[in-house]
Structure formats: structure tokens, C-alpha cells
Amino acid sequence: MPRTPTRAVAPWVRTRLRVAPGTAWAFALLVLVTAFLAAALPRAVDTYESEGLRHDLAGAAPRNTVLEFAAPMLRPDDPSNGHATGTTAEDTVRQRAELERLLPAPLRVDPAESVHGVRTTKRVVALDRWLPQPYGVPPEFVLATPSALAEHTRVREGRLPAKADTAALTSEAAVTAETAKSLRVKVGSVVHVPNRYGSEPLTLTVTGIVEPVRPQGAYWAVEPLLRTPAYTMKPAGAEIHYYWQAALLLPPDGGSLLVESLGEPERYWRLAPVGGHLTAQDEPRLSRAVASLTGGPDLTKAREVLGPFATVTTGLDEVVTAYGGMRTAIAPVVAVAAFGIGAVAAVVLAMTGGLFAARRTAELALLRSRGGSLAGIGLRLLGETAVLALPAAGLGLLLATLALPGGRWGPALTAAGAVALLATLALPLRALFLHRRPLAHGGREDLIAARPSRGRTVAELTLLALAVGAVVALRRRGTEDSGDHLVSSAPVLVALIAALVLVRLYPLPLRWAARPARRLRGVVGHLSLARAGRSSATGALPLLALLVALTTAAFGGSVLAGVADARDRAALLETGADARVMGDADAAPLPDGLAKAVLGTTGVKDVAAVQVEYGVTLPTTGTGPATELRTAPLVGVEPESYARLAARTGFGPFPAELLKSTGTGGKDDSERVLPAIASPAVAERLGPEPQGITSAAGSFRVRIVGVRSATPALPEQDFLLVNGADLTHRADTVLLASGPSVPGDALRDVVAAASRDFSVVLRTERRAAYVDSPMQAGAERIYLAAIGAGAGYAVLAVLLSLLQAAPERAMLLARLRTMGLTRRQGRRLLGLEALPQALLAAVGGVLVGWATILLLAPGVDLVRLSLAAAPGLAALDSAPLRVDGWSLALPAVGVVVLAGLAAALQAWWSARGEPIRELRAGDAR
Q: Disulfide check for 528: which of 471, 673, 708, 833 has CB 3.0–4.6 Å away?
């Protein structure tokens, strides 16, 4: 009779978890934190990218985002009106509803800011002499019938227009308060405009004066003339005449009357889009929808509603394209941080599995020697880790979802699942690899005597080829291809290769140092070197984790430092100093005593008053491409203060003696020669010989004594710099103030007290203006989080490597203490043992981080991450990546200090007990 298998007395998984609950909880916590970070990263990227799209749409001018449909408005008896689909006010309302229905997804409309009606495409001339007519030019009006006028205005006087009579050529109208004030219009005023089809003019009676509600909204802002009159110029032969432009607001039924005017009216529907529902993943669909509306299938559908001559215009496609460009530029730089922290986390999880496998080597070897199968042991170990890793990863995913509700679910689930899979398989795979055949008790593993296998050599060469390919690709084409993950992982691959190379070279310095250490009188030095040279086969993982963490920290710190430097320089290029005081007009002279008053302001340490005259004609001398330069600004300075400013800003520093005064100030002598510093183009234009200059500041000759590419007064322009004391007419126009903390409010009060016609621009305010995009702020936060998480995982790597050898070290200290080793010598022994590996990681991390940044810097441009404006609109054309010394040194020093503290703590903990406890044979530890 066959025997019935008996059930195990205690389940394997439950028993193992009860034996070491602290270890189980620590492992679960590690998986939870890692899964949370892995799931939070894609959700954080989705969140700031989606916020960036909504921010760009909300922050763009309404005229650049509104969808404007237009169709001609013709008389019913016009022969070309046969294709009209309806021209009454009721037809316009119906057509707007149909347009809103046919808008392709993801476009949605804000009904409150959308408007429709009839407007004149050409301004019509008013015939009334009582209207203001400067230079004898009559005002011109835009006639419009905007919908929902009552909801978008507050009536200040009279009432809203209600009636229009096309047969009688009359209509009521309203004007805004600004229009009424500028053109002296009152309730009851009558405005006449020409009639296109007869001699009798159209009569428009003003029945109300209104105040716009939300004047910056799309309803009013798309056509500002409807709310605010414009005083503009008109060429009149050789003269310039100024005249008024304004708008008259008619009732909805007034559209048919506009056909009788000379304004060539059109029906219009301005649909204001909303972006609150959009996400970053909607960008391609949004671009396709706009393209279809402006020149695709949806334009055909719109013409079926509005008529064959309908048009659709919008600047929304440019806004979406600019957003896509910034997103494409930022994504690869952020991916570098993601790959770095992901690699460190993966190595730490693998180290955790290796630690568990090393601690249970004897147990698993015993099971294998007693007939345990690899499949059976592997399934039991898989159950141990799965029961901890899977719930922890699920909880981490849930926490990431709650913390960042705006991201996608799929990428977060994939990332958390990858963490759970790695954490679950690390211990079983490591144990199965070590015990693929029964282990006999053997000698210790010695790194110095180890010889790498052929398989390991092939793997290292493969990784080396991948790293070289990634670096070459990044240097050649930059970071434009956001889908090329090999490029984003280049810093990680470089760190990986460096780790493998350092592990191979590590025995050499140990062997060299061990020889002289043998001749030392003490035993601690020799023992520490001997101990440092012996490690398990997993000894490369801690070094790999530290190198990847240090490289990621160095790269991330350098990115943040490069971003900060780019913003500082761009702001300085705009202001030329910490504060710039200038008049509303270019040639407005500074008030008397202003420079002294500004210098007395708290926080201001130095001022430089300069005289800037734009458009000074240069003589026709010189050869080469610079001969096309016809004019350049003339800058008169006080050499001492201006030289200090140039040295402080780095914009064309020069010794003050170069512009030594000739003592001819105030004299009207065109033959005197002044020393001058010029930009390269101006210097090439003038040549080495003295050249005559005629300007409002005086007539004189200049000799170029120095060439500088920039100067603080005009950092981005060509210039001709002279000593202001030598000018015939001295009148400073710009004041440049410097100081560690220039107060904006106090400085503006001082300037306002001197004159209301001058303004203050602060460098700090201009710098803050560059960070107005959620994508920029989000990318910076991710880099900061990556640096912090990398530091945390580096600490775990150090602790795990020490924990793996902790039992052996405790046994060694116990044995040595029975031989007379003191506690102080024990602490020195453990500290010196940990020092070579810590120094190797620190020095290697610095070298690898430095080399990685130098290799990748030509392919990385931080302009998009640094500045809110796109290249061409910003003050900088490029912002290259540079090495930041603090980002290299601080993490490396931290690794050495951490390793020393951990070794000292272990020595202190081991010294607390009695040696006999560690030497008892058979005790469970």
C-alpha cells in the first residue's frame, strides 16, 4: 500500500518570515519605497508636462489661441451671394452651435469667452466734424455686432443698443468708456459713416457708454480696438499725421446694415479654446485637429456650414509647436536622471538578494547536499520574496497614485511591476546560481587571486561597446531624439564600465601596499590590507552602485548648476548690472542727483552712469563683411566706475587707463582724437586709423585702443565706448547699479522721487521671469529628487556591503581579542579595512563623473530647461553643460565619511559583547 505523503509540520514561507521578522519588514520597506519612486517618476513627468501644456495655452495671448471662422457678408441681391448659407442673426447663432459640434477632439470651447457676429474688415471714416481730428484727419471706426454684449459689459451711462433699421439706414450703437473719453462721445451723439450704395450716409446713434468686463479675456482682447481706441500714425507725403481709430458696437440685428457700409463686412465666429482637460498625451492629437481645421477635412465640414468662401485662422498651432519643442528638448535630459536613479535602485535590490543568499549559504548548501532540487528550493525562495515584494510594490503604486493623481496609470504600473519582479527574483536567481551544483566546504574567496572568466570578459566588452556607441551618438546629434534610450543611459553605461574596470584594477594597489605593510611592527595595517583584498563574488555590486550614484549626482548637479548659470547670465545680459535705471525715452537724461541718491540706497555698493546714443553713423572705412554695419550706439562712460562694473560682470573688462581723458571735454573740436573701445564689427569698420564721428554728443575723431565682444551698457549689441568726460555735450541716460542685495522697492521709490519718467529693471526679477513654465520647474524637481534618492541608495549600498561581511568581521574581532587585540585596535582595523573600497568608490566616482560630463557636454544644451523663452527670443543662444566641482566633491567625500562611520559603528557594536559569545560553535546567529 503506497504511503500517503505527510504534510509539513510548518509551512516554509510562514516559518521563514517568523524567524527573521525584522529582515522581512526591512525588505518590504525597501521594495515599497523603490516601487513608490518608480511609479511616481512617470506620473510626475506626466503631471508637469500636462501642466506645461495648460500653462502655455492659458498664458498665450488670446489672439494667438482663438479659432476664428469668417465668411463674407453680402447683400441679398448681390449676384455672388448665391452660396450664402444664412446671414441673419438667428442663422449666425445656429451656425456657431454647428461649428462647436464639429470641432475635432480634443478641442473644447469656452462659451463665456467665445463671440460671434458681423464686423467690418476695413475701418470706415466718420463724416462728422465734431469728432476730434488732429492734423485734420477724421477718425476711423470699426463697426461690429458682438454677441452677448450684456454679459460682457457694465452700462455706465444710457442703455445697450437694441434696434437697427436697414431700410432707414439707422442703428443704435454703444461705445466703451475709453472710446467716449478719447473721442468726446456722449449718450445721444450721432456718428455718420459713408453709404456704399448711395449718397445718404448711415446714421449711428450712441445710446450707451459701457465698461468691458474681463477686458483681458478673449472676448475683448482678440480685437483690442473694440474696447480701447488707438491714436496712430498715417503717412502724408513727407510728413506723419496722427489720427484716432475706435469701434462702435451695434445690436445683433445691425449686421444687415453693415452691408451698406464701405467696411466690407464679414460674419465671424471666434471660439476660445480651453485647456483644462488637456494632457501632454493630447499634444499630437491637438496638432492634428488644428491642422485639419485650417486646411484639412474639418475645414471642408466648416465650409458646408458657413459657405464655400469661409476661412479658419488661428495661432494655436504655433503655441502647440513651441510647447512640443520645449517638451522634446527637456525629455532626454530628464531621462538621464531617470536611468541613473533606476540603475542605482536596481543594483541595490540585486545587492539585497545577494545579501540574503550569502547569509543563507550554509542552509541552502545543506538542503542541496540532502537531495533538495533546484526547482523546489527556487520555488520556496520565490514564495518568501513574493509574499513580501508584491504587496509592498502594490502599496507603493497606490501611494504614488494618491500623491500624483494627474499622471497615467500604465507607465506607473509597469515601473512598479518591474520593481516587484526584480525584488522577487533577486534572491531565488542568486541562490540558484550559487547552488547550481552542491557546494563542498572550501577556502575563502580572494579577490587578489580571482581570475575573471571568459563569459565575464565578453559581457564587459559588450557593455563597453554599448557605452561607447551611446556617447558617440550623443556627441553627434545631441539630445534631440527623446525616444533613444541608449543615449539617455550613456552616463549609466560609462559608470558601469568604470566599475568593472576598477574592480579588475583593484587588486594591483592592494598587492603593492601589502608588501611594505608586512614589515610594519603592528598587525593592524597588514591585516586591514589583507582583509580589504578578500571579498565575495558579489563585491563588484557595491562599487557599481556607488559609481552610478556618484555619476548621477554629478551629472544632475552639473545640470542644475548649468541651468542656474544660464539664467544668471541671461538676466545679466538684459540688465548689464544688478539694476538698470533708464528713461521711457532713449535719450532722456538722468535727473540731477539721482546717481548719488541710488548709491545711498541700502544694498547698493557701486553705480556707473553712462550716456548712450543710438544710431550714430559710422564712416565708410574698412573692408570685409563688417562694412555692412552703418550705425552703432555711442557709449560715454566714467572709466573708473565702468571698468569696475565690466570686471564684475565679465562683459569686456578693461583697464581704466585705456580711456584716459584727453582734457577736451565740452569743446566743439572735430579734429580732436579720443581713445575708444569697440565691438569687433565696429573696430573692423573703423580700422586702425583715427576716424571722424558726428553725433548729438559732439563731433570728434576716435582711435580704437581696445576690442571687446561685449560691454555692460549694451551686452548684446555693437558699440563704441569713449570717455564721457571728453564729450562736447555730456548727459548720462542710463544708471547701472551693483550690490549684493539691491532692493527693488526702495530703489524704485528713490527713482520715482526724482522723476516719474524713469523705470528700474532688476536682474533678479528678470531671472525669475525665466522660470514661468511648469515643465522647467518640474524637470528641476525631478533632478533634485533623483540626486536625493541616489544618495539614499548609495547609503544603502554601503550598509548592505558592510552587513554582508558583518558576521565574519565579528568573528574575526572576537578571535583577535582573545589574542590580545584592544578595542581601539579593533576600530582601527575595521576602519582601515573599509577605507580602500571607500576611496576607490570616491576617486572613481569623481573621475567617472568628470569624464562623463566632459564627454556628454557637447551634445547637451540646457537653453530650453533654463529659459522660458524659446531660442531666438531669449538672451542666450546656448547653455552648455559644465562640470560643477561641488557636485563632484561633496558626494565623494560623503561616501568616505559614511564608510568610516559605518565601520566605527560596527566596531563599537561588536565590542559591546563578550568574545566567547561569537566563538560558541553551533549557536544560531
A: 833
